[in-house]
Amino acid sequence: MSFAKEYEFLTEIGIQPRNSGCFVNGVWKGSGSVVSSVNPANNKPIAEVVEASPQDYEEGMKACFEASKIWMQLPAPKRGEIVRQIGDALRAKLEYLGRLLSLEMGKILPEGIGEVQEVIDMCDFAVGLSRQLNGSVIPSERPNHMMLEMWNPLGVVGVITAFNFPCAVLGWNACIALVCGNCVVWKGAPTTPLITIAMTKLVGEVLEKNNLPAAIFTSFCGGAEIGQAIAKDTRIPLVSFTGSSKVGLSVQQTVSQRFGKCLLELSGNNALIVMDDADIKLAVRSVLFAAVGTAGQRCTTCRRLLVHEKVYDSVVDQLLEAYKQVKIGDPLEKGTLLGPLHTRASRENFENGIKVIKSQGGKILTGGSVIESEGNFVQPTIVEISPSADVVKEELFGPVLYVLKFKTFEEAVEINNSVPQGLSSSVFTRSPEVIFKWIGPKGSDCGIVNVNIPTNGAEIGGAFGGEKGTGGGREAGSDSWKQYMRRSTCTINYGSELPLAQGINFG
């Protein structure tokens, strides 16, 4: 078996026509099902992967748990140095990895390369963080006593990632988990196994070069069986899960039953509000890529466009004109803005979703159909619909934008907050009063609250995540690192007396 000519570049990042899908104690193996990774642009196989079996999982976890005893004792700046080297290894293969990501997931090449760059940036962020894992010194009310906080590693962190960001989400979690002193067990999405393997190979090479146990970073390609094993495993104190609210709730319940901790990044149903004083051209440009980028498969995709009645017609007209210019096609081709949906099932969900939208009074302004081809291509779609329609409360994971009209800012906030999800939100306005209401206690109820920028494109320096059905987790920047460690409040008596025991003679 050999690669088709256009896939030969994959050998540069360690991918073969047939690959073992488990990195267990420094050895590549796999004794589970054989699956094919498929190019969503034509639904043809790229390469085969042998997935993990329960036996592979248990062998890998044993080794990882033992390796954690070594890794957590390394000084944090030394751990940071290892993560720095991982970043350099990714830099050296940036173009290849980005191309693989676009090929296997379906996002356009600039997005594929940009996503790998985000992991590199997270490595840099984590290197600095490795010297700043600071606790507090707290004044004690007792004489000759000191109180302080110590932050120690959890041990092993489980990371379960989704197909839409198969690299970035790993970076947000693993880079910080590693510098905090934890080993990482990674289960990539079942439909993006090649990027899981390519990333793991680079990390494994860095660990080997530094004479460290390879089991510090353990990864599995596999399906729900492996995810359930991670959720149930008492050796994994923290499970970070990215996916749907439905599956995330199941993971949380399983982990909670053993008193483990969860970090959940789940569904989004993000609104962008255009006020009557907004810069309309800026808003339209922002909406276009926020709604169409990654074929609407970002958790931060703009799904609801709320437009003030005074500028409604102008905004919709300009947006429809912009949609006409969207180039749909092979994500690896220069100039493509909209690639395919990730799977055939995604395309079917799109078709079914359009039927439901029409049944609930939605008016298709543009798009609304699949594109007949070998791949999973659909038309970017704009729908005029009532904010009270049930379908608006759900997340249709595709390039479908609901356009909703409002009269007052308070009404727009109410519509924004009316859905079960609470990830990202944005308002376009020139009014300081509106801005500060928007980011205040009676404004957006989301974890990401933007002004004059789209709902997508979060920076790693801030904590990423959302409220309500989005799960409440926070990844990447700010003080997100605290989730990957355990806090101890320590009281030290450096005197010779115990204040509470004064007046008692102990002989």
Automatic annotation (TrEMBL):
Gene3D superfamilies: Aldehyde Dehydrogenase, Chain A, domain 1, Aldehyde Dehydrogenase, Chain A, domain 2. The active site is at E265. PROSITE patterns: ALDEHYDE_DEHYDR_GLU. Its EC number is 1.2.1.3. It is an enzyme of class 1 (oxidoreductase). Keywords: NAD, Oxidoreductase. It catalyses: an aldehyde + NAD(+) + H2O = a carboxylate + NADH + 2 H(+). The keyword Hydrolase does not apply. This is aldehyde dehydrogenase (NAD(+)). Homotetramer. Residues 33-488 form the Aldehyde dehydrogenase domain. PANTHER family: ALPHA-AMINOADIPIC SEMIALDEHYDE DEHYDROGENASE. It comes from Helianthus annuus (Common sunflower). Belongs to the aldehyde dehydrogenase family. GO terms for molecular function: aldehyde dehydrogenase (NAD+) activity. It holds the Pfam family Aldedh.
